[in-house]
Amino acid sequence: MNLYLDDVMGVxxxxxxxxxNVRDFLTGDVVERIExxxxxxxxxxxxxxxxxxxEVKSLSLxxxxxxxxxxxxxxxxLCWLEERVAENPDFYVPELRVHSGNTxxxxxxxxxxxxxxxxxxxx
Length: 123
Hints:
alpha/beta; Rossmann fold; 5 strands; globular
């Protein structure tokens, strides 16, 4: 399962799935097709992470979710993950991506991702 947190992008089908074609930069050929479960809110995203744990392989986050309170920005999910990993270095964390057009906040989100990786127990 791959989760895609965004308030507008990723128009899902009737099952909540959005299929993204990843294309080769030079040829334009589709090299990978990723299926994302589209999630619109931070609480729903966290609930799915709690429920499905290691079944979530990738998590792609937008920052601006159309609201101004801290509960409704993509970085809040990263803060939640960071707290879990700080408490338990073995806590499962999926592959993390940021797809926000807000470059300043995207930088902050990547800083949090690096913090999460520092907390994780290294094999």
